[in-house]
Amino acid sequence: MLRSTLFLLTLGLTASAFAQTKPSTTPDPAITKMVEEISEKNLRDDIDKLVSFGTRHTLSDTKSKKRGIGASRNWVEDEFKKYSKASGGRLKVEQDTFTIKPDGRRINRPVVMANVMATLPGTDPNDKRIFVVSGHIDSRVSDVMNATADAPGANDDGSGTVAVMELARVMSKQQFPATIIFVAVQGEEQGLYGSTHMAKRAKAENWNLVAMLNNDIMGNSTGHDPEIKNTTQLRVFSEGVPANETPDEAKVRRTLSSENDSPSRQLARYIRTVTKNHVAGHEVVLEYRPDRFLRGGDHTPFNQQGFTAVRFSEMNEDFRHQHQDLRTENGEEYGDHAKFMDFAYLRKNTGVNLATLANLALAPAAPENVGVLTAKLTNRTELQWEAPKAGEKPAGYYVLMRETSTPEWQQKFFVTDTKADLPHSKDNFIFGVVSVDAEGHESLPVTPKPVR
Question: Which residue in 27, 82, 109, 318 has its CB near the most CB atoms, within 10 A?
Fold first, then answer.
């Protein structure tokens, strides 16, 4: 059977293509240490503080220092500034403000919104890559237009917001060649306004945005109807067909049936792998749809602008504690309170984000113009690519391989050349190519395109 023997195969590469010394295959202890530094107490304390603002509805008070969206935004900004001071000022903090006009739906008057951003610039001036991690700061109750009622928003999406804050606290102490942006976006519940603003800004300013991680509802380990407790798994949602796919790209996709090899799907697989290496006892479950059934989130506008983006959510949601007025009915309590969260679970999910961001930001940029040669009718597969033009020079490349029916990569082998000739047919396998440094940090995989 292929699955049991694939790792033992000799791939018949030329001697010049093999590296004499492979990159490290041991998980980076520095990343593992950062994951361990994530504080469950900090996550809990930050949730309690967010909840203390009463409501964080997008249309709520912006003048009060104690209640409403304005006070909560300012508090997150102040916390980011504390992390910046601890980092020696390297973490750059701002509120990116923008105005949304009445939309006839969930915005009934002109509203000044703000995304609270903390940017950790990359240390390599030639490395222009950017990675974004987000949670949404706004909250709501049953009536999406009710801006005055208490809306704790502990899990939706206090969980994502405090995860981003804790990531900024831990990671800003370290140095990465690429840039990382930690952001609490506003306006998700009213129509993804904050993330849409940021995605359009990234497009207009031509950011080299490699990956965006959206965290939304990821701090409760017990679902309801049916009641299922799961403390060891986290879902990652990823789009198959890219939203900005061109007609020519669609033609190739249909010919190759490559829906499961979009950039966002490759990111999801990457996350699953680094989680195994750095977050003990935890598993990322690949969900092959853009979001939960008929739903969307703050990664969606990034996908729409052509960026690679995914969403994290807990395995089993409890809808009694989402978008609910605070009340008790038939002995059941409704409302998004912190007491319904599992902070040990949230800590592990935050670790998934950190392991992913750190590995990506430390890795070389991905190879460019990756192609599979199709001129010959042969049972071999010839691949070629170009080295990344900016940033750290890779120590080499891994060529990844899997059966067409298998969701995860089954085999990887290391080459120092920018080509590979494999004794395995492109008819039967899917391939990817990644850049890797000496410490074993890998870029996202690139799926080869047909080259005649």
Answer: 318
